[in-house]
């Protein structure tokens, strides 16, 4: 092989311009741009969280406790360590506005603060005023500031009175900006901010009620966060402490962005795979047109290596150009749209050029280009000096030489390995890779099946010329059914799966909620209020079912004496505190899967019944011990049974249930779920919250609607990724149509010579496009339904019904896409002069 000669040949070939490579460049650029754009947005958000971490968190570090305030020992450590410490109390309550015609009520997430809040950042109010002045209130009443959504819902104006528990507040201003809102996590109600000292007579912070305290620390300049965090966790590891610092001021947002970004990058890889089909088709078409040139070079003494290197260098240069265009587009689009993206984000973002995601996108682009170009390039070896005829590229070996197959396998392994490492989720990457490979395999078989069916159906269509010609073209070797079905089918498969999952999820919520979900969760019911609460609920004929249970919250700190996360990793049960209940006798609704419930009069060492599914995931067994910190006290209990816990019904479910004597002496409250007819809900909530102002009523329908909205946004984000894949597939269709224009011109010339009209020839073109689109749509529909069923059944654990409007739209979309792409290139063959075309083929 003479590399210098190959480079000279490649340079001369490139002088001809980009003719035949526009689709090649577009497919590669679009796939790289999608991955680069997603990575740039993710990196920008992560940079914003790092830069503004202290503001998002509300301090340099935070110590968080459940159900209690910090002890004097903990406060002393904070005073010794930090320059300033701000105390924040976070809980849910009912905001009540008393009016002459009745009271208006709404759930709110209350933040009770001290004079130092916020340590970092600033609270913006409307009308503008210092937070301290707003919380001071007026006319002898403490002040409150409230999110505009909540104020509008209650019809509350500035200067009017709102009640939290038994304490009235005067609304001083609307909350415009809360600097640490992103660190608060998921909230069921809009925000209200009050002063902690104003809640002393409200009845909302009684022992056992559900609240969290957060102590934000202003640390000295240059403080070592690792060292201080290790000291805090070591000293207070048995008190239920949760520690965070400004390096990850909004961990929930950061974790969500990271996982969603990784998933969307993998969706982008599926788009790049579709683009790879287009790349491969474009190269095959280009090399088919170079058959005579290659044969001539071989006759002049060029060896196989030189020929391969010539076109490898040429296509490599064009690949670099396509990747560069994709990087510019992927990096530039987020910068241009930065104001719009930032306005939609709950956290700050630093939009600039981030090298890491661009390098990742470039790596994927290079590997994809190599994988999809190596196979058609390898077939140049089949062209010999004696094979100067037109269809040389369609003959020869079905597979390239073994060395090329080995190289392809290594490149695929490198691509999967890089995606696994860079996405941070090897399992998700492997499943995605398997799904793409499986889909491409099924679609390839479908393309072959379509050609086989077309060949078998041709005899029956001999009386319908247009249909007969269309079937003949589809079953022939030149139509390119495979790239059409592959490119369009994969994009439609992703869209079909997303549509089925989203439709079934929304359908399950709408269908199952009235049947299985309670109307309300009532929390913070004190023990002495239970009798009156139950009298009101059980005396209502519209209430069909009521469940009550004692409620505590605890943090699992140790498993079998070892730190819990060292034993069970980052399982969700260990991330934060979890609900804990107790019971003497085994409840009628409890089903044990293994072990035995303790005797009703049991008074020995603590025992615990654990959720069977979560126990299996964490690797727990009967006889293991769990250390649970509740209200700063460690309780070590032995697992004596596992039980079924169904969280999907939105009813009452506890991961842990202990024997009664283990917890009954601890301060706690009760929770209740109430199932009632929708018409009775308003009166039920009014009566109970009037009688017991400290009780918080959470309307389950509203909570599920909020979760449904979040899931809808996730489905939309996934749909955008699928749409990018579909757009790439449409480009591949255009490329396939453009590549087949020459053969359609010859076909049209022959048919016109035999007396066919332009209208009948056009009908033939339309029929073949529609048949291929319908085939791709039907295969995509089957794949989408299968994927939707798998996710709905195994991941979401919901029922599954085919959403037929979405399904039919997929088939219609496939037909429309192929019609548009095919007919766009139909005019030239129809208008070409037969004599000119036939003379050129002689």
How would you describe what is shown here?
With 842 residues, this protein is an alpha+beta fold. The chain has 4 domains: 1-48 and 254-424, no CATH class; 61-222, no CATH class; 445-516 and 700-842, no CATH class; 543-676, no CATH class. Helices cover 54% and strands 17% of the residues. The chain has 27 helices and 21 strands. The strands form 2 sheets. It has a 6-stranded mixed beta barrel with strand order 2-3-8-5-7-6. A 6-stranded mixed barrel has the order 12-14-19-16-18-17. Helix 14 (426-457) packs across helix 16. The longest helix has 40 residues, at 700-739. The radius of gyration is 34 Å and the shape is elongated. It is a multi-pass membrane protein.
Short account of what is shown:
By secondary structure, the protein is of the alpha+beta class. The protein is 54% helix and 17% strand.
Helix-strand blueprint:
Blueprint: H1 3-14, H2 22-51, H3 53-57, E1 61-66, H4 72-81, E2 84-99, E3 102-113, E4 124-126, H5 131-136, E5 143-146, H6 148-154, E6 161-164, E7 167-177, E8 191-195, E9 212-218, H7 225-235, E10 242-245, H8 251-289, H9 291-299, H10 304-336, H11 338-344, H12 355-378, H13 402-423, H14 426-457, H15 465-475, H16 481-516, E11 520-525, H17 530-538, E12 543-559, E13 562-563, H18 564-568, E14 578-583, E15 592-595, E16 607-611, H19 612-618, E17 625-630, E18 633-643, E19 656-659, H20 660-663, E20 669-676, H21 681-691, E21 696-699, H22 700-739, H23 741-753, H24 758-795, H25 804-824, H26 827-831, H27 834-840
Parallel strand pairs: 3-8, 5-7, 14-19, 16-18
Antiparallel strand pairs: 1-9, 1-10, 2-3, 2-6, 2-9, 4-7, 5-8, 6-7, 11-20, 11-21, 12-13, 12-14, 12-17, 12-20, 15-18, 16-19, 17-18
């Amino acid at each position: 092989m003479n590399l210098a000669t190959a480079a000279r040949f490649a340079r001369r070939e490139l002088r001809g311009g980009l003719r035949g490579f526009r689709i090649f460049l577009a497919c590669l650029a679009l796939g790289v741009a999608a991955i680069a754009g997603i990575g740039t947005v993710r990196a920008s958000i992560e940079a914003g969280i790092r830069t503004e971490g202290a503001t998002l968190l509300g301090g340099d570090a935070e110590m968080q406790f459940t159900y209690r305030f910090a002890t004097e020992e903990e406060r002393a450590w904070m005073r010794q360590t930090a320059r300033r410490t701000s105390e924040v109390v976070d809980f849910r309550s009912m905001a009540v506005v008393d009016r002459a015609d009745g009271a208006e009520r709404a759930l709110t997430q209350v933040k009770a603060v001290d004079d130092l809040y916020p340590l970092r950042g600033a609270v913006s109010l409307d009308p503008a005023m210092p937070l301290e002045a707003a919380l001071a209130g007026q006319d002898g009443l403490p002040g409150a500031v409230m999110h505009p959504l909540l104020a509008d819902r209650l019809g509350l104006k500035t200067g009017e009175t709102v009640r939290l528990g038994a304490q009235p507040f005067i609304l001083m201003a609307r909350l415009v900006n809360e600097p640490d809102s992103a660190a608060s996590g998921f909230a069921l109600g809009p925000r209200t901010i009050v002063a902690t000292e104003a809640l002393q007579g409200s009845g909302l912070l009684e022992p056992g009620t559900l609240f969290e305290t957060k102590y934000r620390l202003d640390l000295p300049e240059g403080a070592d966060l690792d060292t201080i965090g290790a000291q805090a966790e070591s000293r207070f590891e048995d008190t239920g402490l949760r520690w965070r610092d400004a390096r990850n001021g909004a961990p929930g947002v950061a974790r969500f962005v990271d996982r969603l970004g990784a998933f969307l990058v993998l969706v982008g890889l599926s788009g790049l795979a579709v683009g790879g089909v287009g790349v491969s088709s474009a190269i095959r078409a280009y090399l088919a047109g170079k058959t005579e040139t290659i044969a001539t070079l071989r006759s002049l003494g060029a060896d196989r290596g030189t020929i391969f290197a010539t076109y490898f260098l040429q296509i490599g240069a064009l690949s670099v150009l396509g990747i560069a265009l994709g990087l510019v587009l992927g990096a530039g689009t987020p910068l241009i749209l930065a104001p719009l993206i930032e306005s939609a984000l709950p956290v700050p973002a630093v939009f600039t050029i981030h090298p890491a995601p661009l390098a990742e996108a470039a790596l994927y682009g290079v590997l994809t280009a190599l994988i999809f170009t190596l196979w058609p390039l390898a077939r140049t070896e089949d062209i010999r000096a004696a094979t100067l005829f037109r269809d040389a590229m369609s003959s020869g070996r079905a597979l390239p030489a073994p060395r090329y197959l080995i190289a392809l396998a290594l490149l695929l392994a490198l691509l999967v390995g890089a995606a696994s490492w860079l996405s941070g989720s090897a399992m998700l990457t492997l499943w995605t890779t398997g799904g793409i490979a499986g889909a491409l395999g099924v679609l390839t078989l479908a393309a072959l099946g379509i050609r086989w069916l077309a060949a078998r159906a041709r005899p029956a269509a001999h009386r319908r010329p247009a249909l007969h010609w269309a079937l003949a073209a589809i079953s022939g070797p030149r139509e390119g059914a495979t790239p059409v079905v592959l490119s369009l089918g994969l994009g439609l498969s992703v869209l079909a799966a997303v549509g089925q999952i989203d439709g079934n999820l929304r359908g399950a919520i709408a269908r199952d909620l009235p049947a299985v979900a309670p109307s309300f969760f009532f929390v913070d019911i004190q023990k002495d209020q239970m009798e009156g609460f139950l009298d009101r609920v059980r005396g209502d004929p519209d209430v069909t079912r009521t469940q009550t249970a004692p409620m505590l919250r605890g943090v699992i700190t140790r498993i079998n004496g070892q730190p819990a996360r060292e034993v069970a990793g980052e399982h969700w049960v260990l991330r934060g505190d979890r609900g804990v209940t107790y019971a003497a006798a085994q409840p009628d609704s409890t089903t044990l899967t293994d072990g035995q419930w303790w005797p009703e009069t049991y008074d020995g060492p603590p025992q615990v019944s654990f959720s069977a599914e979560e126990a299996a995931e964490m690797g727990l067994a009967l006889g293991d011990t769990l250390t649970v910190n509740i209200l700063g006290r460690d309780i070590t209990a032995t697992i004596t049974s596992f039980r079924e816990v169904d969280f999907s019904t939105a009813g009452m479910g506890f991961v842990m249930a202990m024997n009664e004597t283990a917890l009954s002496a601890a301060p706690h409250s009760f929770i209740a779920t109430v199932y009632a007819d929708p018409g009775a809900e308003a009166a039920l909530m009014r009566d109970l919250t009037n009688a017991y102002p400290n009780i918080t009523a959470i309307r389950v329908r509203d909570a599920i609607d909020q979760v449904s909205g979040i899931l809808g946004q996730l489905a939309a984000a996934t749909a955008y990724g699928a749409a990018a894949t579909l757009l790439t597939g449409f480009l591949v269709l255009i490329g396939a149509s453009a590549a087949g224009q020459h053969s359609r011109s010859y076909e049209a010339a022959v048919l016109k010579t035999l007396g066919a009209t332009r209208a009948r020839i056009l009908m033939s073109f339309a029929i073949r496009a529609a048949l291929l689109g319908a085939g791709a749509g039907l295969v995509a529909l089957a794949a989408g339904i299968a994927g939707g069923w798998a996710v709905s059944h195994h991941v979401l654990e919901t029922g599954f019904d085919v959403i037929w409007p979405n399904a039919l739209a997929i088939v219609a979309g496939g037909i429309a896409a192929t019609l548009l792409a095919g007919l766009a290139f139909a005019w030239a063959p129809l208008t070409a002069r037969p004599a000119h075309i036939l003379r050129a083929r002689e």
